[in-house]
Design brief:
320 residues, OppC_N, cell membrane, BP-dependent_transpt_permease
């Protein structure tokens, strides 16, 4: 007969402390790569300040006309060359046109030219960079072509292109559309070289990585290799080049318009407003300052955005 308190009937008791130690410790789910990129970007004070300023500029340029519904081309000779007032917060020009409305319209054109020219330069630069980095046979000719474009004087080349093709494009597409196409193409085909060299360097490094060699060993075609393995891994330099390309395109368009070789006088851009205001600099200095401040803030904010994206997309800096 077995006693009730015999060792066979006794089971080891589990204390509360032991239960707590034995319980699985909850772990936070791993963050995705883009979450790390966003976290690094938001900790970059300059990039956040640039993003806020650029968003405010875009909102003022594209949403402002919905609130300030004055035609930028409306002429009122009786109100010409007026200073800032309640009726015209930025004053009027030599024909009595509202400067605030013209600043908004000019900002739309300048930003549109900058973004479109950047996309063209980005496409050409990425194409040349990927082809030169992946295919060894055409690397030499493509890089010599890039060096040739880098050696060309940019501003005289743009002036020659504008003088040669402005009348032809204006006749075929209209003055505004023709000059817009000319500006975008001229700036785009003279701004792709830095992107091409950066992308080529990254592609040359990626070609020797293990996953690329493994994909090549199983017979992956070059076209699929570029689309699936090369391009997704060169997004970082392409995005940074895109932000910096917008600033470069805005400055180039403003310089051409300031020289009087851009859009027609009745089609405002920030550079054209500067050109028109030079003769009235002493009488109305704000007419020169306002477009200059808009150009400077746009370029500066986009450059800070590019710096923040470069730091956030670089895995060597992201964890710091």
């Amino acid at each position: 007969m077995t006693e009730p308190n015999s060792p066979e009937d006794q089971t080891p008791a589990t204390t509360p402390a032991a239960a707590v130690l034995a319980a699985p410790v909850p772990t936070a789910p791993p963050r995705s790569q883009w979450a790390d990129v966003w976290s690094q970007f938001t900790h970059h004070k300059g990039a956040m300040a640039g993003a806020v300023v650029f968003i405010l500029i875009l909102a003022g340029v594209f949403l402002g006309p919905l609130l300030w519904q004055i035609d930028p081309s409306y002429i009122d000779i009786r109100a010409r060359n007026q200073g800032p007032s309640l009726a015209h917060p930025f004053g009027t020009d030599q024909l009595g046109r509202d400067m605030m409305a013209r600043m908004m319209a000019g900002g739309q054109v300048s930003v549109a030219v900058g973004v479109t020219a950047m996309l063209l330069a980005l496409f050409l630069g990425s194409l040349v960079g990927v082809l030169a980095g992946y295919f060894r046979r055409i690397d030499g000719p493509l890089m010599r072509l890039t060096d040739l474009f880098l050696a060309l004087p940019l501003l005289p080349l743009l002036l020659v292109m504008v003088m040669l093709f402005r009348d032809m494009l204006s006749k075929n597409f209209g003055p505004e559309t023709g000059i817009f196409i000319l500006m975008v193409v001229a700036i785009g085909i003279t701004s792709w070289m830095p992107t091409a060299r950066i992308v080529r360097g990254d592609v040359l490094a990626l070609k020797e990585r293990e996953f690329v060699l493994a994909a090549r060993s199983i017979g992956t075609t070059p076209f699929k290799m570029i689309l699936r393995h090369i391009l997704p891994n060169v997004v970082s330099p392409i995005v940074v080049s895109a932000t910096l390309g917008i600033a470069n395109a805005i400055i180039t368009e403003s310089a051409l318009s300031f020289l009087g070789l851009g859009f027609p006088p009745d089609f405002p851009t920030w550079g054209r407003l500067l050109f028109d205001a030079v003769d009235y600099m002493q009488q109305n200095p704000e007419r020169v300052m306002l477009p200059g401040i808009a150009i400077s803030l746009s370029v500066l904010s986009v450059n800070y955005l590019g710096d923040g994206l470069r730091d956030a997309l670089d895995p060597r800096i992201r964890g710091r």
